[in-house]
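Trying the structure run again after the queue cleared.
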Amino acid sequence: MSEAQKQLEYWLNDSYFDDATKEELLAIRNNEDEVEDRFYKELEFGTGGLRGVIGAGTNRMNKYTVRKATQGLANYIKKHGGPDACKKGVAISCNSFYSSSFSLLLCCLLSQLLFTLTFFLSFFYSLIVLTVIYPFDNINYKNY
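Done. Tokens:
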């Protein structure tokens, strides 16, 4: 069994993942290429944020990868941002991409909640903004 297939089985059998996610994965279970593409790596957080194909899997944009990336970023900032890192805060927003099966707004709110639960001050843009606003906000207001 490949590593991708092992990850698929984990997602199908762990109670952490919701039924809709499991249904999506059951539909592609026998498609080796699709399973490999969805699970061959973790979705990467790059200079433009977390971006990828929307769907279930570790190499897809979904609420599980957003949660994991948010927690990882919070951990990193706490470790390397100095004693006042949480007070400086983080800026959170989403772009104008829309999918009926995936709410970027929900993921932004989820990210804000996770940062709040880890004692971060968080700034949430309630309107859709351009990606270039994030670095400006973080540099201008010295957020990290």
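The first helix runs from residue 3 to 13. Worth checking whether this holds up in the mutant runs.
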